[in-house]
Amino acid sequence: MTQLKLIIFDMDGVLVDSEKFYMKSELQVIQSFGKEASEDYLRSFCGTTQDFIWGSIKKDFALDISLEDLKFNAKNQLIYLFETEEIEAIEHVEKTLSNLKKAGYLLAVASSSEREIIKRHLIELDFLKYFDLIKSSEDVAHSKPAPDVFIAVAEELKVPTEHVIVIEDSTNGIKAAKNAEMICIGYNNLNYPPINQEAADIIISNMSEITPEFLEELVNKK
């Protein structure tokens, strides 16, 4: 029987309902150049880094601005939205975190967001107390869908991959978890258009489904 020891959470769209802020800020920056972008186009960047997002947008829309200036403008717009609009946790996730912590599991965050943004959200929602480790794409050589950030968490906490479950929502995040040879739960937020989560081992649509019993059963099915 495999013993589950570590649960790794993505942040955006899994712990924090923040994807809408990224998409809104991206659209606003694109519109400032007189361009338009579809929701599907913006959703395709979920789970990727700011370097990748803005490098792609700069190229796709032939924007006459340096990448560094574009990223600077985008970050300012994103922070403005975070400061002026309310950040909310994903429904039921705080109770899930509390129950998993009480059950004795190690909990970690592994996100493509910048460390500054991760800590801002976790502090604002009073979630920092639940986590043993936080890793950002800034901490590793390659971002999702490369497995680096998940492997870095497992190595630092000294947990073999077969004792780990990852909870992700994006296509790239799920691919990263599977590339790390970890079990992956895909969280399908019904408030957003569906994205490809077919690589996940199982898909849920409510965080209350994640109980110690559910996770142990999932680990021992593998």
UniProtKB/TrEMBL annotation:
Q: Which residues are in coiled coils?
A: none
Could you tell me which Gene3D superfamilies the record lists for this protein?
Answer: HAD superfamily/HAD-like (3.40.50.1000), Putative phosphatase, domain 2 (1.10.150.240)
Q: Report TM segments.
A: none
The source's domain of life comes to Bacteria
List, alphabetically, the InterPro entries matched: HAD-like_sf, HAD-SF_hydro_IA, HAD_2, HAD_sf, PGP-like_dom2
Q: Know the name of this protein? A: HAD family phosphatase
- Tell me what organism the protein belongs to: Vagococcus fluvialis
